[in-house]
Amino acid sequence: MKMLAISGSLRQGSHNTDLLRGAAAAAPDGVDVELYHGLKDIPPYDADDDIPGNRPAAVDQFKAALREADAVLISTPEYNASIPGVLKNALDWASRPLAESPVRNKPVAVMSSSTGMFGGVWAAEETRKVLGALGARTLEDTVAVPKADERLANGVDAALLTELRSVIDALANAVEARAAVAA
Amino acid sequence: MSTTQQTSVTGIPTGTWNLDPVHSSLGFAIKHSGVMTFRGDFPEFDARLADGGLVGTARVASVRVDEPNLAGHLQTPDFFDAEQFPELRFVSNSIERDGERVSIAGDLTLRGVTHAVELSGTASGPVTDGYGTQRLGLDLETTINRHDYGISWNQPLPSGEPALADDVVITANIALVQA
Questions:
Q1: Which of B20, B23, B57, B22 has its CA nearest to residue B42?
Q2: Which terminus, N or C, of chain A has the lesser number of Cβ atoms within 10 Å?
Q3: Domain of residue A63, CATH code
Q4: A134 to chain B: which residues are within 8 Å by CB?
Q5: E-assigned strands of chain A?
Q6: Top CATH class, B8-178
């Protein structure tokens, strides 16, 4: 089973990317959590470019990566009480056309972390709302890490790994439930 | 389609009656922004009156509204979740007719959740049409709370009020032909 991990932060030392690496480490055998590295290459959404033959290669690659994944795991920071523009922009590209969105019906979990007291929960909630509009099967299972600079200073600890594992398990269960319906 | 439930019937003809889809419709209506009534329908549905029971089904993915993006959104897990729950179903357990008035109690299953509902409205016929076929008409309506079926999507308006109401009116105009 393949899960695509998307960090809403581009920063080299991103806490959210660390969280996703922790999720990859926490994943059981048979679940491959693959970190997506191409978010920075995706240009601002422009409907004039969103046509076959004109679509940026980075967008095609992003949509292909989503399509090939059985599930998606996002971890996002919170910018000004909402979704980072780079993440929202990528999801906007992935939303068109709606009936063919590569995340349609796909299980997605959204986690968050921030250096503030609330762990980016509003950004995560708004990301779930956007994913719902894309037709994703958005799970409520989550991990939110407040004061991430302190909590993750020495890496992802055992307690956090357990929380991350429970999100991975929930995603895996949703993938299997979807496969059972299709069978 | 059949039901194992015991059905009581008063004033409804016996035998088997199948749907005439051309002269039938299955729709829904919900208040939007507190003042507007938004309507949609399920063009792919079936109904059958047999052994004193009415069974109706609809293919959720056929949901039709006059806005393609919304039609797509309605099929997703935010609303009907057509992939996971491809069918909505009604199975009657009692049918009472008094003149033109008809009341049909039964179970409605939507998004995998079943609740008892009562459809009320009018029954017309049977009559013999121009081709010698017996026809029966049922015009039925019920109101459900969508949250009871796990359909809870909403969006706050600038005023803070929710965009979508909780109650949904389901309307079935069913033309039946004797088998």
A1: B57
A2: C
A3: 3.40.50.360
A4: 76
A5: 2-7, 32-35, 71-76, 107-113, 137-138, 144-145
A6: mainly beta
Using a CB-CB cut-off of 8 Å, the residues of chain B touching A133 are 73, 78
CB contact under 8 A, B153 and A132: yes
Kindly list the residues from chain A whose CB atom is less than 8 angstroms away from the CB atom of residue B84: 177-178, 181
With a threshold of 0.90, tell me whether the complex ipTM lies above it.
no
The residues on B that touch A, with CB distances below 8 Å, are 68-69, 72-73, 75-78, 81, 83-84, 153
Domains of chain B, by residue range, sit at 8-178
How many structural domains comprise chain A? 1
**C-alpha span between A14 and A114 (Å, rounded):** 10
| Cross-chain CB nearest to B76 (options A105, A177, A178) | A105
The domain containing residue A41 runs over which residues? Answer: 2-182
Q: What are the φ and ψ backbone dihedral angles of B152, each rounded to 5 degrees?
A: -120, 10
Mean pLDDT by 10 residues, chain A (183 residues): 98 96 97 97 96 94 98 97 97 89 96 95 96 95 96 94 98 96 86
